[in-house]
Amino acid sequence: MIGAATRLAALVGHPVGHSLSPAMQNAAFEAAGGDGCYLAFDVVPGRLDTALKGLAALGALGANVTLPHKEEAFGLCDWIEPSARLVGAVNVVLFKEEGLWGYNSDVDGVRGALAELSPSGGRALLLGAGGSARAAAVALLGREFSSLAVANRTADRARRMAGDIEAALGRQTVTVLDWKRFHEEPFDLVVNATSLGLASNPWSGEDLTRLVRSLRGAPLLDLVYRRGGGTELVEAARSVGSPAVDGRSVLLHQGMRSFALFTGCGAPGEAMRRALEEGER
Question: Mind listing the pLDDT tens digit for each residue in 247-276?
Answer without folding.
Answer: 999 999 999 999 999 999 999 999 999 999
